[in-house]
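User: Show me a protein chain along with its predicted structure.
Assistant: Here is one chain, sequence first, then structure tokens.
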Amino acid sequence: MIIQLATLLLVASADADVEVRRDIPYWKGDEKHPTKNKLDLYLPANSRGFPVLFFVHGGAWMHGDKNFLGVYSSLGKAFASKGVGVVVTNYRLSPAVRHPEHSLDVGRALAWTQNNIASMGGDPAAITLCGHSAGGHLVSLIACSGEIQKQCGVDPAKIRAVAPISGVYDIPNGFLPMVFGAAPRDAASPSRLAKPGLPPFLVIFGENDLKYCGREPSQTFCRCLSEKGNKAMELELAGADHMFALLQSFQPDKPAMKAILLLTRTGALPAEHPSP
């Protein structure tokens, strides 16, 4: 597993035509964290008007970091080498904070991106949200929740599409009280907040994914979105477990990366458009 991971990261990091900017503060509130309220940028060198992939790491809302083992920097460089700017953000974690603080931090990072990416060459109207595991939950929640968008200053019209990977879409009552407290879970569940007028969703998961992140919950979420009149498509990655669903998302010529590139560049789901 370690050898496979190292090989994948080495391949994804090979392109040098990428400008990297690290540890940019996106929030200066009184409760800001010295490292968790910062983001990194991976920008196509000498390029203007490029689409943007806004990425949120996983870790069960309690762990993880944008610097984890070079995984997310490899993801950023892989997409930037294909002409897509990438934002990888941190956010405060439990038990130091509880819901909705994780989603508010991510919303603040997204608002910062919408307000600032044009000055760095990106298209602020072509931002696709993506995240793995807890990050998949958070980007889906922000896309579905008008309340979080309003609190954070997010413009929903500038969200081109959403591509959660192995996310959690329905938070059961009593699930992880250290993270979600004791409040009812409706406001924390993207599936319960689905409404008309949302951007297209590409819901990605591994064939051997975790119980709350795999085929059944992903299909249920897609159905919730579709029943409200939204475009939603599931993409199952053959043979992939929870971690390899993430790793395959930025491996050249893999179905996940092809689909995310198409979505990021055009806003179209794979079934609507020929592969690039």
